[in-house]
Amino acid sequence: MTSGSPWLTALALFSRDAWLVLGSAFVMGFTIFGGIYSLLFNLYLLRLGYDLGFIGLINAAALLGWAVACLPAGTVGGWLGNRLAMVLGLGLALVGYLLVPFCELIPPGLGRSAWLLVAYLAGNVFIALYDVNSQPFLAQASSPVERDHLFATQAALWPVAAFLGSLAGGVLPGIFGALLPTGSPSAPYRYSLILCAFLLGFGVWALLATRGGQTSPREGQTPPGEGPTPATIFPSLGIVFLGIALFLQGTGEGAVRTFFNVYLDTTFRVPTEVLGLLAASGNLLGAAAALLMPVISRRTGHKRLFVFGTLGISAALASLFFLPGMLAASVGFILVLVLVSITRPAVLVYLMESATQRVQTLLSSVYTMAMGLSWSAVALFGGFALATLGYPGFFLVCAVLVAVSAVAFGAQRREQLD
């Protein structure tokens, strides 16, 4: 192996399967999670004539559906194996996202709205199969020597891919509008979403190219055909307690990702261009921060890194209450994204290494479901809280919840997760 950077040494150890799953993760970020689809979907709905009420409803329903699907996704992974579950999930999600823009074949009205809701919900529900099963697959396709760097690389890929996807999504409607002038304001967005769904097919291809346990000399993947055991379906009390702690931690990220732009826009009249620059800066700094996780965890351990990083997220949120102003708010926003990018791979490695192979998928399900439920809860109830508390008070409440999550996670014992 190379005697240079630890990163180069770790990269050389990544298995073929690991690289292919990382490739699928990049495609996911570029297209669906933070990329083209995330940027254009709501704009497409606006150009179809839908109001903010329907837009909020369809996004909240999709996010909640994704979260609720996580535990069943783990069960499916136990039946089919992690690899096949990932392929099936991403392939079916592609179909759901592809069907969304074909809603225009139905006349405006209740039928079109139902088509949009069902197709977009299906895409998000099936994507849970990929999200839940990709973490144990990566854990089983790696050894402890390079696992920290592998999960850190995955965490860094998402924001980079989302940044590039956002840039692409910004120009695609203009390109289609010039190439296919129809006079319809929704047409450029329709064709952009169709192209985005087809691009997701590259992620499916990458997963099909993996070999799973057949070529893994270390641990192999969750074997299909054996069916899930009770331990892989019904969480123990310790795992339920873990899920609550992760749910509370997710409210911090959900709060800033959902309401921070609105906060700066309505309170400080920050131009859209500046908001975009802040979001891009937060994503890119978060990607760089994720790569620091292996270095920091060697000194602190994964659990302590997650606890102290979570306390840092709480402090950054609290600063939005105690230090009002655009500059302080912007710094707090970026700090939250940076710390989330460090803590996410740390907690995933901790969970994957805290359990037997059969329970890894369950822990991945609990983690993903907790994140989805917390973000959907913030989206659904945040508006009511803001009307009562205002933005500073709302962020302070979230800071307290995140601090409680750090204490609860720190009190969790490793043996409770198996």
Notable traits:
mainly alpha, single chain, 0% strand, Growth Hormone, Chain: A, globular, 418 residues
Plain-language structure description:
With 418 residues, this protein is an all-alpha fold. The protein folds into 2 domains: 15-210, Up-down Bundle (Growth Hormone, Chain: A); 232-418, MFS general substrate transporter like domains (Growth Hormone, Chain: A, Up-down Bundle), CATH 1.20.1250.20. It has 17 helices and no strands. The protein has helices at residues 6-13, 16-31, 36-47, 52-68, 70-80, 82-99, 110-140, 144-179, 187-199, 201-208, 230-233, 237-268, 272-290, 293-300, 302-322, 326-353, 357-411. Mean pLDDT is 87; it is low at 213-220 and 225-234.
